[in-house]
Amino acid sequence: MQQRFVCFIFFFLAVTSVDAQNLNGIWRGKLTQDPGGCYPVYYLELQISALDQNNINGNSYDSYDKARYVRLDFNGRYNAQTNRLVIIESKVLTFQIPRDCVPCIKTYELAYTKNGSDEFLTGEWKGFEMERRAVCPPGKITLQRVMQPEFPVQVRQNDTLARIQQTLKLQDRQKEIVKAYQLDTSEVKIDLYDNAEIDDDTVTVFLNNTLLLYRKRLTDKALTLRFHAYPGTEYELMMYADNLGRIPPNTALMVVTAGKNRYELRVISSEQKSAVVKFVYQPSQ
Predict the structure, then answer these.
(1) What strand order describes the sheet that includes 202-207?
(2) Residue 74's CB: how many other CB atoms inside 10 A?
(3) Mean per-residue pLDDT for 204-231?
(4) Does pLDDT of 246 surpass 70?
(5) Which DSSP letter does residue 22 get?
């Protein structure tokens, strides 16, 4: 008989005296399961990003150890009137689990508490098997906000770009680091414009080797990227020139908005080099 391995599709967070923005970051702890599961105790890491005051997304890692885990993608919505957060995991992204274990789709009900500077999410969960729809043995969960992730932080990518990247073949070019920014906020917006005369420059853009823009034309209207930076994680934005336009080289104006700070820089890519800008979020202690 196959055992059930924990992975969840959605959960509800009952949050007291906290807004959606304050949930940004890494939450890690233990998830227990009654007899009948694959293991008696699991570890859970939530990597939560708030898109605005109402919507969040992120990844979860449901694991026994770093070699045995399930990683899932989720989206969610925060209700300010009820102080509840609903998260729906849309798909399993990667997994490494024993063959006799089965992922379990779960519902979590958690409460937010704070003790001094420590923040917690605690409660219970229940669910059913992903394949056979049998009920999974339920359990309890305790998470605490932590500064550093234990599992890799992944850049989110839509399904269309993921399919393109699977077959994408680019020329091997040297990376040229244009600038490195140390940020004091986790919310980052990047706008790309043509730097001078609009001459049909097109670019393909990656963040930490994840394709986010594909063959987009630079104009006087911004190509905008937004991402949530986790503490201590280095982010590398690479701009690959698909062509050089009518006036070589391929030149863009990059405007970086991070909290109250705004930076502008000229980014040049060619058939030999791809421009790279790096970011690290270092929160104040």
Answers:
(1) 174-183, 273-281, 234-241, 202-207, 210-217
(2) 21
(3) 94
(4) no
(5) G
